[in-house]
Amino acid sequence: MLLRHTPKEISERSALMINPAKTCQPIGAMYAALGIHGCLPHSHGSQGCCAYHRSTLTRHYKEPIVAATSSFTEGSSVFGGQANLLQAIDNIFTVYNPEIIAIHTTCLSETIGDDLPQILKKSKDEGITPEGKMVIGAPTPSYVGSHVTGFSNMVKAMANMAEPVTKKNGKVNIIPGWVEPCDMEEIKRLAAIVGVDITLFPDTSGVLNGPLSGEYTMFPKGGTTVAELKGCGGAIGTLALGEWCSADAARLLDTKHKVPCRVLDMPFGLKATDRFVDALRTVGGTSVPEEISDERGQLVDMISDMHQYFYHKKVALVGDPDQLIAMTEFLVSIDMCPIHIVTGTSGKKFEKRIREITKDVPFPVNVKAWGDMFLLHQWIKNEPVDLLIGNTYCKYIARDEDLPLVRWGFPILDRQGHQYFPTVGYKGGLRILEKILSALLDRTDRDAPEEKFELVF
Amino acid sequence: MATTKKKVVQWEPVDIKAELLKQYPAKVARKRAKQILINEAQENSPPSEIVANVRTIPGIITMRGCTYAGCKGVIMGPTSDIVNLVHGPIGCSFYAWLTRRNQTSASGEKGENFIPYCMSTDMQDSDIIFGGEKKLAAAIQEAYDLFHPKAIAVFATCPVGLIGDDIHNVARQMKEKLGDCNVFAFSCEGYKGVSQSAGHHIANNQVFTHLVGKSETVKTDKYKINLLGEYNIGGDGFEIDRILKKCGITNIATFSGNSTYDQFASANQADLSCVMCHRSINYVADMLETKYGIPWVKINFIGAGATAKSLRKIARYFGDQELSDRVEAVIAEEMPDVEVARLDVYPRTQGKTVMIFVGGSRAHHYQELFNEMGMKTLSAGYEFGHRDDYEGRQVLPLKVDSDSRNIEEIHVEADPLLYRPRKTPEEMQALEENGLKFKEYEGLNPDMENGTIIIDDLNQYEAEKLVQLMKPDLFCAGIKEKYSIQKLGVPQKQLHSYDSGGPYAGFKGAVNFYQEIDRLVNSKVWGLMQAPWQENPELSATYVWE
Fold first, then answer.
1. A148/A255 same-domain check
2. In chain B, which residue's Cα lies nearest the Cα of A53?
């Protein structure tokens, strides 16, 4: 047993987090910034933050993740990081020449109180930021919220790039939240079929799922352009997918530029995708073509075909709030029973939403925001499940408890496919079901005694 | 640019250096110029100086990590039965959670193994404002109540030092309160020092202060050694231990691969310290000698030849014919399989070129393996090495600058009870005269050919340039560098934690490495990058159906 010291008996903890279901803000900000075309993310802190975030994102995406750091030393920690940051901006534009630098702070620079807007102004005033180039910043103190908060804060900084407009451009902003590059591609595909002209931000497709061709460019062709971001104040509406990931940016555009917004769940599973497509055609003033209805029908078809394997199977889930809300709803809609749900990110609203979604589940349901995987494991020991859904770290629980595991979320360090095969939309729903079925049926095959071993499922 | 096509122009080393510096602002170029060295003959002239262990320039995309990573991640991470508790916001503990591939078997299937656990005080803004000491004490108590470990190690992250939490005092108080649990702390805030190296130092000092010499178990085996600076990544330590055991040598303490609390605590009982990674631990070897009388030698188990050489070196120290015979028998038994594997890959690897930019010792050690495969190292350097790792220990002591001054140096004296010189001065002298060098490490530079380029703290921009200009067949660095190099069509081997594969140490490790490198440099994938229509974009004939 790898987690042999985890006791079944649950004791109250007030200070010690064990096996977290979250990480810190800056990595989310770094990921979001990679969704801007021609952008170099910059970590205003000591070197380790940047190195750790780059390593984790690299291992998840198996793609180059470039980002710079202010390389704080003890001196800069005492005297402030302004000199380091100005030097960094100068070096970055001279050596790497990005269109834009997206800076996020760290617990270090936040604790010493570096004033990011003032430093960026100085950089501009003194010509360190060259004419025609941009530097944006997002405060991402690691001791507040989680990686999800950091993502949201950087997306908000992107929305803040919107310039005042006099005329609407007829486009719709879609803020996809922390999803995979292929999910962003899928959202663009759906919007194109529905006939809505969108600005998607951030957009890591074409950045973090690039080809191997013998060429390397630090700034690949994907990503939302600076011009698109500057123009997103002219949109006729914003669809923010996920309260935790995307709502702040959408509300900022609403307040500052009168772009009306709707906050939706992330489009994982049937019903959330239904609401997304319906909102899309409403805001865009188009009608949904048959192609989409057919895709939807295929998903319903698979649910009905395989329902016997889903029905009343108990599931434990761990991940981020927006993803878990949609996934829990999807599982309930196919008559599975999510009974243990943990996110590392805080939010009373999360527990409330999950309670609503699972109110008819015929088993007691455990839910916790700002929880950890140690607690999840203890819950599983007390009330076993048939399936576990979460990131790579879940494999330790899955092994010890002999549970089928579907890897979904961040980070996935030991399997492939998440960057290429979307789980959003109806097509993504098929992919989720395929993964769940494979995990459950592989287990059935493995465990079946010879006389019960089946050819057909 | 497509690097698959072989270049026509052969670049001179000086031109390459100039090319690397060309794009930099003047100040950056001046600084980097001192960290890029063209290796020269050293027989009659003093070796060239390289600037190392200095600050990375802000904004220059470095490979380096931080002090915390060196302390918690590298040194303390591999020990199975110590609870590692990170005091800080959640990220630092999260990123160091199982990502170094430190394998462990030291405590057996049922014993204490906390490596799969990630523990943190998950500091919130209220802790930053009002201080985190109470939360830390509570977290230590909760960890103790849950796990009853023999030791809890506390690690500081950046904000802890800034807000002034006295973690050492909390640790002291909790140690007293708990009674049967050794609690100690590491001031390894990420901003200290200029790289991970400072963290190694902070970790080792505390291990030396709080653990070494504390065991009451008497080790009675023959030929007892400490293996210093081996981290059991991908099972390297397992293979080394297999070989040592076969030779009849007892490794009583590895710092810190596959280690336990008791191993550290017994290290003072060894007869000899063997230093593997010079960078991360040479000062511990010195302290073990000063305080307990244990001499040290530099060894290297990376490379089959180096492994044999190191075993012989250990045998020579003990000066016992029986041991020497056994070592020779083991080498004779192990080498044929290694030779078969080596000769199998040799025709495919010979003449290939490689660049290595890792660590504090690996950029040197791994050249042994590449030499065995007939591969030439064109350029190499350390991520966090110091001058002595490049130029050899004769440059010691180094000038102390403002960044290294922050890192605590502990001064030890002979222990009144436990100091016991293992050899008389005469015996030591006789061994030295016989060719066994103590406390000696010549560094990377003398082992590299003239005209090769040695670069300290290589960065993203220079790596890309080097690969474009010199077109090596293989590039070795870390995971952050892997995919940008591979996009250029050049395979990259991750040589920090390997990311996959291993062990690469010892005899079986050498075989693994030959096969891994053969796979990388001869993989078909590098020939698949172009589609037919990209190779021949112009249609030269019309087709009949047109």
1. no
2. B95
